[in-house]
Amino acid sequence: MGTLVNCTDERLAKGRIFDCRSALMDAQYGPTQYAKGHIPGAIYADLNHELCGQIQPGVTGRHPLPTKKDFLQQVRRWGINNDDLIVTYDDDNGAFAARLWWMLRWLGHDDVFVLDGGFKQWTEKNLPVSVDTTSAATSDFSLKPALTKVVSAPDLLPWDGLLLDARDPIRFRGESEPVDPIAGHIPGAANAPFANNMNQGTFKTPTQLREIYHAAARQDVACYCGSGVTATHTILALMHAGFDEPHLYPGSWSEWITDSKHPIA
Q1: Cα dihedral across residues 120, 122, 124, 130: positive or negative
Q2: What is the pLDDT of residues 65-106, one digit of tens each?
Q3: I need a surface site. Which of 7, 36, 206, 236 has the fewest CB within 10 A?
Q4: Does pLDDT of 1 surpass 80?
Q5: What does the pLDDT look like over 103-136, one tens digit per residue?
Q6: Which residues participate in catalysis according to the annotation?
Q7: Cβ contacts of residue 73 below 8 Å, gap of 6+?
Q8: May I ask the CATH class of domain 149-256?
C-alpha cells in the first residue's frame, strides 16, 4: 500500500511523476504554474478536465468522478503501465495530489504515492526544476479490482458509522460558504479539516494522525468535503496512520445540496 514519499526518496528516480497543482477559484493556476516550472519529467494532470467528469448542473457536484472507462483511457494516454510506480504532487498540502492518488487506486493501481511537502519542499531543497513538457506513448494499462470504497448520498441517510467532513470549520458550521450556494453540513457528520493533517507543510506522523482520528478505529468511516477532492486527503491521512480503507462520497456537499429532500445541518 502506497501513501507518502519525501523529496529525497530513491523511488522518485524510477517513478512516473504527476503535477496536480490547482486552485478551486482559478482554473488557469495549475497549468500556468506547471509551465513556469515543475519537477523534471512530471506530466500535468488537470483537476478540471482529466480528474473530473462531466458536470451536470443540478445533478452532480462540482468535481464529479469521470466514468472508470473514461479515466482508464486517460491513464493510457498518459502512458502509465501497470508496473509503474507513480508519484503525485501539488503545492497545496497534497489536497489535489491526493485526488489522483485515490483515482489510480480506484482503478486498482496500488503503487502510487503522494510527495510529502509537494513542490514547495522540492524547491526549498534547491532540487532541479524543468520547463520541458513530458509525454509518453499510449499504454495498455489494464483495469484491476478497485482498492477504494465509495458511498452515494442514499448511504448517508443516515451513515451508520463515522462521517468526516474535511472542509474548514466555518464552512462546516454554515457560517460562511464561499463556493457552494447553500451552507451547512450533512447531518451526523463530524468536522475534520484536512489542514489538520499537516504540520508546517508536511503530513503529521502516523502516531499524531492516529490521535486525531482515534474514533476511526471503532467505526466504519466515510469522508466528504465540498466536491470530493480534499476528502481524499483525509483518506490518505487515515491510510498513512494505519486505519482501514475509508469510504469516499465523491459528490460531497456540492452534490448533496442539489436534492432539496436531503437534510441539512
Answers
A1: negative
A2: 999 999 999 999 999 999 999 999 999 999 999 999 999 999
A3: 36
A4: no
A5: 999 999 999 999 999 999 999 999 999 999 988 8
A6: 225
A7: none
A8: alpha beta
